[in-house]
Every structure is written in C-alpha cells, then in structure tokens.
Design goal:
The complex is a heterodimer.
Chain A lengths: L19 H26 L1
Chain B lengths: L2 H21 L6 H6 L6 H12 L2 H14 L9 H20 L4 H8 L2 H34 L3 H48 L7 H10 L18 H18 L1 H8 L4 H34 L9 H43 L2 H29 L11 H9 L4 H37 L5 H25 L6 H25 L5 H21 L9 H21 L9
Helix pairs in contact in B: 1-8, 1-16, 3-8, 3-11, 3-12, 3-16, 4-7, 4-12, 4-16, 5-10, 5-12, 6-7, 7-8, 7-16, 7-17, 7-18, 8-12, 8-16, 8-17, 10-11, 10-18, 10-20, 11-16, 13-14, 16-17, 18-19, 18-20, 19-20
The chains are: A mainly alpha, B mainly alpha.
Chain lengths: ~45, ~575
C-alpha cells in the first residue's frame, strides 16, 4: 500500500533542481515560454 | 482498410489488452485491484495520467477542432500547469498521509458520511456520462471503417474494455497505458509527417502558415474578456484552472492513477511531467488539424464529412437538392484553389500590392465556400444540431493515408479508448465499493468478497456507459461535450475539497448544503443562460465560489460542530 511520507519524499532526485519549489518554478517558466511562443505565432500570422 | 490494416489493428489492440491481463495475473487483493501495487515509478504515473485524460476523443475530435476553429482550443489547457502544481503541493500530500483509496474517503474523514456520499455520487454520475462519451469515439471510427451500424460497434468496443478492466484492475491499466501511449504517439507523429509531405509542391512552410493564419487558424491566444467566448486567455488561465483542479484533484479516475505511486516523489514527478508536456502535445494535435485544413485548400473535401448521414438524407428524397449543393461546393472550391494559387504566385514574386489584392479575393472565395458548407449542414439537420467535426480526421485518414498506416491510426484510436475507458471503469468500480458498498451496505465482509464485488461494479458501470452511449445524439463535437459534462458537476466536487483543505471552520452539514445549492446554481445557469453569454468553463468558478460562500453563511447560522476533523 501507499507508504507513509519519508524524508526521501522531500528530495526531488532531479539534477540541478533539488527542491520542490525549484521544480514548480521550472514548470511555470516552461509554461510562460509556451505562452510567449503562442502569442508570437498569433501576432505574426494573424 | 485492407488485410494489412486489419492485422495491425488486431495485433495492437488485442496484444496490449492480453499483455495487461497476463502481467497482473493472480496478483490481486482487494486494495491492489483498486489502487495498484503502490510501486509505480513516476514515468509510468505520468504516462498513465496523460493516457487517462487523452482518450480516443482527443485524437479523433481535436484535429477536427483544429481544422474548423484553429489553434484557439489550446487555451483550454492553460490552467493545467497551475492546477497540477497546486495538487502536487497541497492535495497529494494529504491523500497520501491519510492513505485513502478514493478521494472521497478524505471527505468522510474531514466532514462526515453524507458529504463523502455527496462527493462520490456526483463523481459517479458525471463519470458514467463521461464514460459513455469516451466509448462513442472508437465506435464512430469502427462504424466508418467497417460500415457497421453504430450500436454494434459501441457494444463491441465496450465489451472488450469491460473484460480487460474487470480482469486486470488498476495494475493492468497502469501496465498497458505506457504501450498504448506509445502507439498513440507513433500514429499521430506519422499523421503529422504525412500531412507535411502531402502539401502541394512549391508550397513552403512559410506559405502554409500564411494561408492558415489569414484564414484565422493560427489565433492561438485571444485576450478577449467576453465571458461568452469559450476559449480565451482569461478563461484558460482562470476558469480552466478550476476545471483542471477538479479533474486532476478530485476526479477518482485521475486520483487513482497517481495514488499508485511508489512515493510522494514519484506521484509529484508524474504530475509535473504532465504539467510540462500537455500544452505542447495539444498544440501538436491541433496543428495536425490546421495542416489538414491547408491540404484541403488544394484538394476538394466532402461538403459534409459525415457521409453516412449525408447519404441517409439523400435517400430520404432530398438527393436533387443535396446534389445541387455538392455541385456549387465543387465550383466554389475550384475558384478558391485558383485564387490561392494566384496569391502564392504574387507572394513568391515579391509583389506586395498584388499579394494583398489576391489575398482579399482568396478570403472572399473562402467565405463563399464556408457559406455553402453551412448550407449543407442545415440540409442534413435544419436545426443545426448535428456536427461533422468528429468525422474530419478519420475521413482524411481513410482517403489519403497508405495501408498499414491506416491500421496503425485506427489502432491509435482504440489504444486511446482502451486506456481512458479502463481507467474510468476502474475508478467507477472503486468509488462504488469504497464509498458506498463497504461503509453503507456491507461493512464487515471478507477481502475476497470485496474483490468480487469490485469486479461486479466494474462490469455494471461498463454496461451503464454502453447504454448511455447508445442513447447519445451528439449536438457538440465530442471533445467539447466531454468537457461540458465535466463542467456541470466538477464545481461541486472541487468546492467540497477546497472547503476541506483551506477553510477549517466549516463543518459537514454546512458544506453539504453549500454543495447542493452550488449544483442547483450550475444547472440553472446551464439550462437558462445561453453559451454565447456565459461559456461553460466559467461554471467551475461560479459553482465553487457559490459553495464556499453558502457553506460559510450556513456555518455561521447553524454553529453546530459536526464531526470536526481537519486534515
């Protein structure tokens, strides 16, 4: 069954992004980049 | 379809289903059947969450949506990264700490039994409706490909999913979804490449984008503040965030996928995988529709893509009128093709004035073509309730793709249907047994009894969804219909959890009545306010705020603590 949260749960295990706050920030940055690209596509070809 | 296509279709679909059943043979207890073994790595969770959301509807209907409406639908997914971060940071740790099987168990622990049953009931109702829509998509494909009656293909594809979900459970769903999504991506990438290859010789990528952009197919972001416009930047960022929070955070078909993770870390990473990948994926699928649109500027499409409905209408005595529409459509398409050709020649010659003039002529020709298409739609259904959007992609596949690839793409639709439908049935069975049967009807039975009952409920809900699919008459295209059904019930589901997680002072009775009032408000809005005035996505925001406010007011009036327990 689902184990109790352990100290390992706090580590992301990702190279370069060690905290969950860092992971969430990276996700938001990639989201912002996509929005910017979509706006650029819209403005260029409409 | 020829023998090669059928072979690829059968090997893919039956092979995946058999693999899932074999992989999980004899390893079920009641809890692992519902929740999985609890050792699923993040990548499998990520794929499973993605495959559960991306049903056959996504791959059948979304390219058609891109063909007709362009890239604007991608804005619906703008709320997803934000919602998934909130779920990973707040919802998930609480679910894992309480070691729940269904999300609604949390409501029982935080509030009381009636609030738990309210949440579970709303989920069962909306997911059973949604499952009916999910099964409709592959049935359309089979009906078109095999020329079989739709009700036969609905029953046939429904039975395949029921057998393998009831025998395999949650582990089978997780085990097979990674292969299903592999088939899906292979099929969609092949379709994208082939559409690029099939563009007319001499037409550059820049020309393609210019044509699509001029015909309003590349308007990916719209900053309009009109609440009657379905997909805008603001409805995506605000209303869709509520919608996604409800779907991924409280809909058991999704919660069940990530609760099977080996640790909190694995579940979180699985969600973040989706937060990063979903918008590019939807953009890519919509782009397939846009490419199809440009291809059809140089080759005449059917005036109405649901050719079975068109033929039926002709057989009812309107064949002369319909033939007249087809003839005018062919002439108008020929004119449009010539004007686009002139436009592109002027563009390649660098003559700006001639390019601008030719572009305007091409736009007028396109408008005439669209007017004839609307005439054709009204000829099939004078009330304009039928929609041929879902038939666009499958028509293109069958008319233009080589054999072998046709089989792969039809298998894609089935793989997507199997993965989403099995996850839905698994979740419906779980909620029925964990939230109703076990606590209310039979509290002290054996594990074996509950396992058997879980399988029985899975079969029951499969039959309910098949029955619903048989009764469907589509007024919307499928991808929008699925989201509209969700928006009718998600506000209440989400608001129960929002109150539970974030507002400590409110107790069970207050939130129960607050939820019921919110449900009534949403249904009244749906039946009385036209969609052109208030788009369905905003129901999520209005319903959630209504529940929170009404609950707070009732709590202030009643002031009677009822099972005060906070997470």
């Amino acid at each position: 069954m689902t184990p109790e949260p352990t100290p390992n749960d706090d580590a992301t295990g990702l190279p370069g992004v060690r905290t969950w706050r860092g992971v969430y920030t990276a996700v938001l940055v990639s989201f912002a980049v996509w929005i910017a690209l979509l706006i650029a596509l819209t403005r260029t070809y409409s | 379809m020829n023998g090669l296509d059928y072979a690829i279709l059968l090997i893919t679909v039956l092979g995946i289903a058999a693999y899932g059943t074999w992989q999980t043979r004899g390893r079920h207890t009641f809890k692992t059947f519902l929740k999985g073994s609890g050792n699923t790595p993040w990548f499998v969770i990520g794929i499973s969450v993605m495959a559960t959301q991306a049903s056959a509807v996504t791959f059948l209907s979304t390219p058609g949506q891109g063909y007709l409406g362009g890239l604007g639908f991608v804005q619906f997914y703008f709320g997803m990264p934000i919602a998934l971060i909130i779920i990973a940071a707040v919802f998930l740790p609480i679910y894992r700490k309480l070691n729940v099987i269904t999300a609604y168990e949390y409501l029982g622990q935080r509030f009381d039994l009636k609030t738990r049953l309210l949440g579970a009931s709303v989920f069962l109702l909306q997911r059973a409706l949604g499952a009916g829509l999910t099964i409709y998509a592959p049935a359309i494909v089979l009906s078109k490909v095999l020329n079989w009656p739709l009700h036969i293909t609905i029953i046939g594809s429904g039975i395949i999913v029921i057998i393998y979900t009831a025998t395999g459970g949650s582990d089978a769903v997780n085990a097979t979804q990674k292969y299903q999504i592999g088939v899906i991506f292979a099929g969609m990438i092949a379709a994208f490449v082939l559409l690029l290859v099939k563009l007319p010789i001499g037409l550059t990528l820049s020309d393609t984008l210019t044509i699509a952009g001029s015909m309003h197919k590349l308007e990916a972001v719209n900053f309009s503040t009109n609440p009657g416009q379905r997909y805008t930047f603001w409805s995506g960022m605000i209303a869709a965030t509520f919608h996604m929070l409800a779907y991924f955070g409280t809909d058991q078909s999704q919660v069940q996928r990530y609760l099977g993770g080996a640790s909190l870390r694995e579940s979180r990473l699985g969600l973040m995988f989706n937060a990063v990948c979903k918008i590019p994926m939807q953009f890519f699928i919509l782009a397939i529709g846009v490419l199809m649109f440009v291809n059809y500027q140089f080759e005449k499409p059917p005036v109405y893509f649901d050719q079975v409905a068109w033929s039926q209408r002709a057989a009812q005595g309107d064949s002369a009128a319909l033939h007249g529409i087809e003839t005018r459509f062919a002439t108008a398409h020929q004119q449009e093709e010539e004007t686009i050709d002139t436009w592109m020649k002027a563009r390649h010659a660098g003559d700006r004035a001639a390019e601008s003039a030719a572009r305007n002529v091409a736009m007028q020709a396109h408008d005439r073509l669209e007017a004839i298409r609307k005439e054709a739609r009204l000829a099939v259904d004078p009330h304009d309730k039928r929609n041929d959007t879902d038939y666009i992609f499958i028509t293109y596949i069958l008319d233009h793709f080589p054999h072998g690839l046709i089989g792969l793409l039809v298998a894609t639709f089935f793989a997507a249907a199997l993965s989403a439908k099995s996850a839905e049935l698994n979740a419906l069975g779980s909620a029925s047994i964990v939230d109703f049967y076990k606590p209310v009807l039979k509290p002290n039975a054996s594990e074996q009894h509950y396992l058997t009952a879980s399988k029985a409920f899975t079969i029951f809900w499969g039959c309910v969804s098949i029955t619903f699919a048989l009764c469907l008459s589509m007024a919307e295209n499928l991808i929008q219909a699925v989201n509209i059904v969700g928006a009718l019930f998600y506000p209440v589901m989400l608001s129960l959890f929002v109150v539970g997680f974030f507002i400590r002072g409110i107790r069970g009775t207050a939130v129960f009545w607050g939820g019921l009032v919110a449900q009534v408000v949403v249904l009244v809005l749906f039946f009385t306010v036209p969609d052109s005035t208030l788009s369905y996505l905003w129901y999520n925001v209005i319903g959630c705020i209504t529940c929170v406010c009404v609950s707070a007011i009732i709590q202030q009036v009643v002031k009677s603590p009822n099972a005060p327990q906070s997470a």
